Amino acid sequence: MEWYVIDTVVSPSVGVCFSCIRGFKNLKLTIWYQADIFLAPGSMIEPYDKGVLINGKVYPITVYNVTRYNKELWICMKEKSLCPGSQSINNKYCNIYSKCMVSICPFRLIRQDPEDKVTHGNF
């Protein structure tokens, strides 16, 4: 069964991502997962033997939970996410990377430490 990613929120303090996905008959679910990839809005995903197919390529993923989508909860999660990439404004820099448990920034933000040294790449 194919699912389409509508939106994704990152929880940097625990390193978990939450994606709102839509599938058969417009059924919306929220998937809680951890992976080295990011389920970007617009991506098509499909469950696979050892992970998921994302736009036709297999990626490993650890799924913690799947729940029915709840609009109010989703809005709350987006508002309370400390990840600057999860915000609706276009951020270029990450100022919380020292607290972030996500190994690779899915938003490709540039980390900026408190001493204003800018570094690129993985966190």
TrEMBL record:
This is Anti-adapter protein IraM. Transmembrane segments: none annotated. InterPro entries: Anti-adapter_IraM, IraM/PmrD, PmrD_sf. The keyword GTP-binding does not apply. NCBIfam families: PRK09919.1. Belongs to the IraM/RssC family. It comes from Salmonella enterica (Salmonella choleraesuis). The gene is iraM. GO terms for cellular component: cytoplasm. It is found in: Cytoplasm.
